[in-house]
Amino acid sequence: MPKDHGIGASSKRREDVRFLSGRGVYTDDMALHGQTYAVFVRSNVAHGRIKSIDTSAASKMPGVLAIFTGEDFKDVGGNPAGWLINSRDGTPMREPKRPVLAHGKVRHVGDAYAAVVAETYNQAKDAAQQLADDSDIEELPAIVDMKKAVADSSNRVHDEIPDNLCFDWGWIEDNRAAVDAAFKSAPHVTTLELVNNRLVPNAMEPRSSIGEYNPGTGDYKLTTTSQNPHLTRLLVAAFVLGIPENKLTVVAPDVGGGFGSKIYHYGEEALVLAASRKLGRPVRWTAERTESFLTDAHGRDHVTKIEMASTKDGEILAIRTETLANVGAYLSNFSTATPTFLHGTLMAGPYKVPHVYVNVKTVFTNTAPVDAYRGAGRPEATFSIERIVDKMCRELNLDPFEVRRKNLIQPDQFPYTTPVGLVYDTGNYQATLDKLIELADVKNFDKRAAASKAKGKLRGMGLSTWIEACGIAPSNLVGVLGSRVGLYDAATVRVNATGNISVMTGAHSHGQGHETVFAQIVAEKLGIPESSVEIVHGDTSKIPFGMGSYGSRSLAVCGAAMTKAVDKIIAKGKKIAAHMLEAAEGDITFEDGKFSVAGTDKAKTFGEIAFSAYVPHNYPLETLEPGLEETAFYDPANFTYPAGAYLCEVEVDPETGKVDIASFTCADDFGHVMNPMIVEGQVHGGVGQGIGQALLENTSYDENGQLLTASYMDYAMPRADDVPFYTVDHSCVTPCTHNPLGVKGCGEAGAIGSPPAVVNAVIDALHRGGHTHVKHIDMPVSPARVWSAING
Amino acid sequence: MTKVTMTVNGKAVSAEVEGRTLLSAFLREGLGLTGTHVGCDTSQCGACVVHVDGKAVKSCTMFAADADGAQVKTIEGMNNPDGSLSVVQQAFQDHHGLQCGFCTPGMVMSSAALLAENPKPTEAEIRHYLEGNICRCTGYHNIVKAVLAASGQDAAALAAE
Predict the structure, then answer these.
(1) Which UniProt keywords apply (chain B) (predicted)?
(2) Over 80: is that where the pLDDT of B25 sits?
(3) What is the ipTM of this complex?
């Protein structure tokens, strides 16, 4: 029987009731007394010099309260990059200032250079249009193509950066000679040039922020669509506006999806705070969808050459890559970590590869900033590796299942140190591969292919065996790598006098179901009903500290902090129980919600202990403080390493090039699973996004830097009829060895493992159909691209 | 300004609105019914779907003035009279058909309209009908399952689980 409560149960989500009844409260749902509306004036050219902004007409328009330009913010700080990366030669990266509003130059279409605040939204919008008409911006040649950007030093995104290069990173530089030598002596070398297509995260809730300043107290409050309110508070306070951290509260209420794009601090958040200070009234802003396309941090956008050295029978000897990674016009907060430490360190995949060298050149262009999007660097690494393994198999006429099996790290080789700086603590990659082969019914593929053929379709299957590093991250390690912050987390467990519990966590739930699953964990450990546990998140005034939710870290890091805090509660409860039961503390055991004297029937319930802590009439006050509330900080000892094997079957229509996903099967190892229903939902969502990247989504800028895909009319989001039912499995479990729950994280897996499985399946279908000249098709594998490849 | 009068979730309402006021804005800002969400500007995402005279309508595509005299139902009007979740809403919870919840009001309103038209839809019919509702979280698997279940069909068997 599956469990019906606590750890491992598919408890239904408590947050659903409010969402299904229209009672969620997202930022834009809040109405405030005296509220005003901000609208931003955004550049309609990709690159331009601001000659003048004439505010005289706009400022006289009905309802207009204030107008801001870059001039107003030129003396405050910039929005910084969170990671400082050094180039191969040891020189530090170039970090141009990212102002609240563009000053001097605009650097991408959508770059905000002014803002209007008015009594109503429509008044602000009308005045913003007037201001746009009254702005003189001299258009400069746009820098869009990365190869041209680094080759032509005459045209610069930032005048002080001659070659548009942020850094030229080598990982690991000391290994380069050995890698080159391995290639020289290799019996076979496979080469592949590929593009990891630029994506727009597209959380369904557009970004939205409300700034409130109280002139009577000097307190600021920012309500905003954030995955990590504490980080936003830190950036606004310490780097941008210089507000004392204790005078600024940041609240991220219900947030409608993030996928990375809401990790970062954006200029609009600083603007509404500064405007509220000026006006003494709340100032609100919500993005229209086209603003989201133009200004949310995008994802991916790598151009990569990967080479793989191998023996003739498919043993991988070395991997070498050269990547151009687009960071767009400015450095978003995680933008320098994503193509480096979240990408290069994963370039050995799940394989025993002795030699790996990764080179990444990160390039400024006149496009929106690019940063971490679901998976962040690891999908790029996985796509490169899994595509080239497949290409190598084709070149050498080898079975892709057997070649992977031969190269996978063996279960008895853990902990396994890779040549790119990671130590995988545990795993069993053979087990997930075996499970996948069984679940996907690989042995009957030929029958299904024959049935497809009878319909005039080409069927193919594509495999991907993937690994990721998540549970971000050990602070001392990321400090060495250039992070400006620690990546621990915190939790407070407050036992109320009546025995129910409030848990304040640094994680932020924007779809992940933390309110349900965290309650399951705390309830199980304390032997109380889930309904007695309330999870509080997303408010810096209530929570001790936290780095938020991204990088599949919520359970592995924040859940671990919570577990530690619960352990402290139990430890204190034992002291109280020992006093009440007149026993030695060492003789007290805690099980099923009861503190007992071992070997006797003397016991106190959890509720009795809680009551005694708050009404300490019979209590060891001379040695123990009253109250029952504990806080724990947890810094992970290592990353966690979820891994799995995915198989996609496609049907390709050779007449039109249209690809249909016939089936998609996942066999994952996430360590211990807290709520199977939620974990499966996370995998479904990730795979849906991966299929979107592989078949549909592309972010297209023209040569002038105009975004051609700036609405849902033009950007192909996956819809219900683009995807199948997925088969997902998480029964292969190797528990994480270094966190108390043995969990690894599951949020990004689907988006990491799926794109290469889809593309490998399309190439397989074409080869089975006789189109063996097709070696690769870049994503999205659209009908036009497939048709052209077949007929090219 | 134009005067509009309509019935929203069974209650008569009346207000003066600007001609350019969209039905979605009137519901959210005029009536405080913020369960109806706005996720795009091009009538693509479907987060704003409500029922107007029994038909599923994207409320960001319709002027408030065009709904004058209409019967409008929003997500806030979907619960049973005792406050419990209706069959469609309950199926979404039972089958984890939502994550962040932002597209959910539109998904529920569209699904309810589908089931009113077609009480036993096939998987393909559900997927086709929900084409106008974008969800970024779920990959649609559990949404389609929820609608199958709400129609009284064996969702787990049909989803081949």
Answers:
(1) 2Fe-2S, Iron, Iron-sulfur, Metal-binding, Oxidoreductase
(2) yes
(3) 0.98
